Amino acid sequence: MSRHAEAVLEGVGLAFGYARDAFVFSEWSERFVPGEIVALTGASGRGKSTLLYVLGLMTRPTAGEVLLGGHPVGSLSDRERAWLRATRLGFVFQDAALDPARTILDNVVETSLYRRADRRGSVLRARGLLERFGVEHRVQSRPGQISGGQAQRIALCRALMNDPQVLLADEPTGNLDQASAAVVLGAFRERAEQGAAVVIATHDGALMAQCDRRIEL
Ligand SMILES: Nc1ncnc2c1ncn2[C@@H]1O[C@H](COP(=O)(O)OP(=O)(O)OP(=O)(O)O)[C@@H](O)[C@H]1O
User: Fold this and answer.
1) Ranges for the ABC transporter domain (predicted)?
2) What's the ipTM?
């Protein structure tokens, strides 16, 4: 897909600081187009996760604007942003961030119920995804009973549930063996080919090498 295609996600002049006058990043601008997988790299602590939270509409930037499908989202309410997250974005957190009180199946199904999808169809889809990533046998387990690599794959299933236009992933292969990492990369590629923009924060050289473009923070 051409880099001149219309951006599905864009950051314009973004800055963020946890403390006043101490920016993790500033004046950061970038556009992400459908079909592309971008690696976000940089030394530990440079702000990759923080930037993904801003691009993923979980954290509001200190300055600048995020555009989703060409529309600025800064003036939207928290509720409107939550709706966009559920319907347009998929996010794979570094630590999976599964809800410990729910079963694996409910963790994955939850996002599509939020956008009022039919439960039966959602369960079928969730089971299909869990099977694809080799974790279907854990559907009735709780997050505290599974391995880190299983949790990462389940978090990816959850992110893929709603066919997101933008898929953001924070170190998605950190706990995976080579074979599982290849399956995960295949899923990113497929989602990109279906028209999503994919942004992956990673230190994994093998994963970086498979991305279309690299941005260093
Ligand atoms: N909640 C927080 N409060 C204050 N400072 C924070 C917070 N979260 C992160 N930081 C700081 O912000 C900076 C960027 O952190 P971030 O986690 O975004 O980096 P990263 O590039 O993703 O690192 P890593 O590769 O180790 O995951 C670091 O200096 C970190 O210590």
Assistant:
1) 9-217
2) 0.95
Segments in 13-62 forming alpha helices (H): 48-55
Q: Where are the beta strands (DSSP E) in the chain?
A: 9-19, 22-32, 37-41, 63-68, 71-72, 89-92, 166-170, 197-201, 213-216
114 to each of 65, 81, 160, 161, how far by Cα in Å? 26, 13, 14, 11
Pocket residues for ligand 1 (CB within 6 Å)?
A: 18, 24, 42, 44-50
Residues whose CB falls within 8 Å of the CB of residue 176, separated by 6 or more in sequence, listed in order: 149, 152, 153, 184
Query: Which atom of ligand 1 is closest in space to residue 201's alpha carbon?
Result: 22
Domains defined for the chain, CATH in brackets: 9-97+163-216 (3.40.50.300)
The residue assigned the tokens 């794979």 is 92
Each residue's pLDDT tens digit, 145-196: 999 889 999 999 999 999 999 999 999 988 888 888 888 899 999 999 999 9
How many angstroms does the Cα of residue 54 sit away from the middle of ligand 1?
13
Residues of the chain predicted below pLDDT 50: none
What is the reported pLDDT for 130? 96
For residue 190, report the distance from its CA to the centre of ligand 1, in Å.
30
Of all protein residues, the one whose alpha carbon is nearest to atom 4 of ligand 1 is 18
Note the pLDDT of residue 93.
87
Tokens of 29: 């601008």
Q: What is the Å distance from ligand 1's center to 170 Cα? A: 12
What is the residue with the minimal CA distance to atom 28 of ligand 1? 45
- Output the CA 18–ligand 1 centroid distance in Å: 9
